[in-house]
Amino acid sequence: MKKLFDGIKKTLRNGPIGIYLFAGLIPLNDNFLGFTVLVIILEQLIRTIKIDKAHLSKQLSWRNPGIWLLSFYLLHVVGLIHTENMQFATMDLGMKSTIAIFPIFFMLYKPKVVWNRFVKCFILGAFIAIAYNSFQSYLIYIETGHPHHFTGSYLSHVMHRGYWAVYLLIAYFFMLRLIIAFTSKTRLLLNVFGALILGYFIVLTESRLGLIGLLIVSFWQFIVFSISIKKRWLIPVFIVVISGMFLFVYQTMPHITKRVDKTVLALKTSNQASELTPEKTDARLLLWGSSLELIKENFWFGVGTGDVKDEFVKRNKEKGYSKFVELRFNSHNQFFNVHIALGVFGVVFLLMVFVTNILKKKEDPYRAWRLGIVFILFIALIPESMIESQAGIIPYAFLLSFLTAFTPVIYKTSQQELKPLEATDE
Transmembrane ranges (predicted)? Predict the structure, then answer.
């Protein structure tokens, strides 16, 4: 307990409180993220308003993801030139303002962050979210008696289950990294238990993206674990644990495995897709078909920042997709949505945000962590338009500009002062 209070005191004294708070809120509740952006900025100005000119000079490089993210936002401003629906365009620019705010902030300031603390805040937020959502589902279950309130969209009470599954997946990845870097048997067991809980709730969301991401991340980190671990006897133990988890899901949750089977079937029979089932994979394929048609017609410059939704609805109406028109669906693919709105340069700028995030820096102790986060954020853009609502825009803008911009630090055990981190990625 004393160690916990010491950590809280150090955080209050040295900060950045706003960034740690933001990390905890990402998987917990997107409604407070906008307020937390203000906290991050005000805290920095209170601690020091001085701009590090040397840091700013280094940030003005094509290798900085923030430059591409800021350019991506400015392209939305340029898209106003040939926009007819200015009302939607103005709303869109305001909603996406953090795509410009965070890159500028991290170009001017380089916060000192204890990475382990950031990770633990994110994981803590994920577990609080699990507890809160489970409790809400339990209250509804008492009234209705239907157990399905503990699965699927019924389980996610604060944000869309697709977004929540992505953030739980990042927390799950963090737990796997902590398992790889374990320092004691107790911590190893706690981290394994935590990872199993997170993996279980990702499955309960019934998000196809979450399920596929869970498989990929588990396999990827198991390979990393197998290569780096010195105690080789742990490898078969983890094989049994992971296999047991997936076998348990397969045996006890047949409706979830059926969702995966239906996804595969829909991909194989895409020519028979129906718009009458908008939550299904085959409906997404129809939406992508409409998207590709608009992309071909507006390849270079798109239809404009404010007209993307109107043009997409118009195209679906022409194709007879009345259900899509009624629900005013977007592309359900961020790259398609961006291309329709801004043209090919919008897609290039967005891709460069991810490319520059995976480049190795001169001093890069946490690159392995960054690669996992960036990979999860990237694959989430394929089946979902993640940066078309606040639940995705603000976390994406923060993470994609923050991950290469902060100074990782540790505490001196004797003087309790901050110093730059020179250790490995563990």
Answer: 20-42, 62-81, 93-109, 121-142, 162-180, 187-203, 209-227, 234-253, 336-356, 368-387, 393-411
Say what angle helices 390-402 and 98-108 make with each other, to 10 degrees. Answer: 20
- Give me the half-sphere count of Cα atoms (radius 13 Å) on the Cβ side of residue 304: 15
pTM (two decimals) = 0.90
Q: Cβ neighbours of residue 349 under 8 Å, at least 6 residues apart?
A: 68, 71, 72, 75
pLDDT in tens, 114-143: 999 999 999 999 999 999 999 999 999 999
Pair of tokens at residue 173: 């990845």
Does the pLDDT of residue 426 top 50, yes or no? no
Tokens of 387: 């940066």
Tokens of 254: 């047949």
The length of the chain is: 426
Nearest of 320, 402, 318 to residue 109 by alpha carbon: 402
- Residue 420's DSSP bridge partners are 409
> What domain count does the chain have?
1
Q: Rounded to the nearest 10 degrees, how much is the dihedral formed by the CA atoms of 67, 68, 71, 73?
A: -110
Q: What pLDDT, in 10s, does the model give residues 337-382?
A: 999 999 999 999 999 999 999 998 877 889 999 999 999 999 999 9
Whether residue 425 is contained in a domain is answered as: no
Task: Order across the sheet with 418-420: list the strands.
Answer: 112-113, 407-411, 418-420
Q: Judge whether 426 lies within some domain.
A: no
Q: Which domain holds residue 186?
A: 2-420
Paired sense of beta strands 407-411 and 418-420, if any: antiparallel
Percentage with pLDDT > 90 across the chain: 64
In a domain, 297, yes or no: yes
